[in-house]
Amino acid sequence: xxxxxxxxxxxxxxxxxxxxxxxxxxxxxxxxxxxxxxxxxxxxxxxxxxxxxxxxxxxxxxxxxxxxxxxxxxxxxxxxxxxxxxxxxxxxxxxxxxxxxxxxxxxxxxxxxxxxxxxxxxxxxxxxxxxxxxxxxxxxxxxxxxxxxxxxxxxxxxxxxxxxxxxxxxxxxxxxxxxxxxxxxxxxxxxxxxxxxxxxxxxxxxxxxxxxxxxxxxxxxxxxxxxxxxxxxxxxxxxxxxxxxxxxxxxxxxxxxxxxxxxxxxxxxxxxxxxxxxxxxxxxxxxxxxxxxxxxxxxxxxxxxxxxxxxxxxxxxxxxxxxxxxxxxxxxxxxxxxxxxxxxxxxxxxxxxxxxxxxxxxxxxxxxxxxxxxxxxxxxxxxxxxxxxxxxxxxxxxxxxxxxxxxxxxxxxxxxxxxxxxxxxxxxxxxxxxxxxxxxxxxxxxxxxxxxxxxxxxxxxxxxxxxxxxxxxxxxxxxxxxxxxxxxxxxxxxxxxxxxxxxxxxxxxxxxxxxxxxxxxxxxxxxxxxxxxxxxxxxxxxxxxxxxxxxxxxxxxxxxxxxxxxxxxxxxxxxxxxxxxxxxxxxxxxxxxx
Length: 594
Known about the structure:
By secondary structure, this protein is of the alpha/beta class. It contains 22 helices and 16 strands. Helix 17 crosses helix 19, helix 17 (473-501) packs across helix 20 and helix 20 packs antiparallel against helix 21.
């Protein structure tokens, strides 16, 4: 890893090759076809276009607004992150082999064919127009005193306007002068505001029939973030991974969120690989060359796998309900028939299942993970379970010569789809580092956790940070995080119902909370769910209740009181009795109104 102060940027030869050379000398202008590079995503074909009027240009280095082919994605791209399309076409096709990438290139070629056809038609029509104008000029040549006076006045106006850098001609004739196409396109004209001129309309990027309705693939991170009440239309929920959104407010929608990784050691003894907001210049993820397996395609697992595929990882998938694998097979994943087969054919296998029983069955059951473990095989459990369960699984994996890492994730379905999860890890430190490109693809931050107690090791003992983080640390931390979240959700529901029964406006309560110190995306989204009666699961109620139960047991094990969590747990149990288990956790609200 290069020590606590090292950055990962120095380990990205792909980014250096992209930024190398004399890119600044390339002359680009409106309408040019280009290869655009944004953040960690592969180069993608696009066209330089005019941005929406309400979309401000970011400050700093020179950049262009690019519309990407085969998608509905667009973003401000710095000039050093752009390459001319034709000059680098063969180079890009060699290094990108994805299905969506090929569809995007096909869309470019289709656009070029259409543009060429239109140019030929336009050339033919221009000749006809010239002949008609010449004939018209012959007929309209002034032959009377009045017409001569009109012409003289017209010429006087032309000369005056020429002094101002503008030249006007009589109606029906074409515009002439030395202006560039870009300047002319930016001028106001008499046509209806907002409607593009005919020649611009002809050059709009077509959506190929082969890619229509397909989500944006590796460039999906450039989509502008939709609001909760305005879901993306015709978008596969498994492949919605955004940076920019067409429906976001203009004040913030141009801010590209990418990941600049750094290593830091915190005073608590935990080590984190953290992500920071930055610009597109920070480079891309270089996917590991190791074969990746993934077991469990639920709400969280589906989003994780989609992002692994987008970032170029080789992934083999398995799910108890095999039909859930079909979507990912279409996107380039391989199918494993059993957990044992996946583990035996892959270098690192991740798993994300619902609870301790499912985690144990996956490893110890028939054709389970343990049967595929051989010396050197790696297993990463991302399930939220108790420390005893994960310790037992680690022991059996290591006993077969395997390597083990626990890495539960904090987030929900939306954050999983967006690749913005928080990963908490403990166990084999070397394996944690081997998973770095995977963690970058699925999350915004990852933490390697060691016990704070370990800081007081006797002098001369091996430093804890150089070896394994005690298995169970991540499980404990994850349960504490979800305990806080679940208790907070129950308190939100309690407050909204109390407002209702006392004659107060629930919407006003939300507005007040959103203006105070409690304001957060979580608060707003969950309150909106309640106000709209929309309890589509983003985090299952039954799972947050499970986590509360396990957190209370964790407190009992160390004789620590958890009365708030215990009270919240009872409310969730009542909600489960009202058949709310498979709804979102915000459905705990219904426990208060029945």
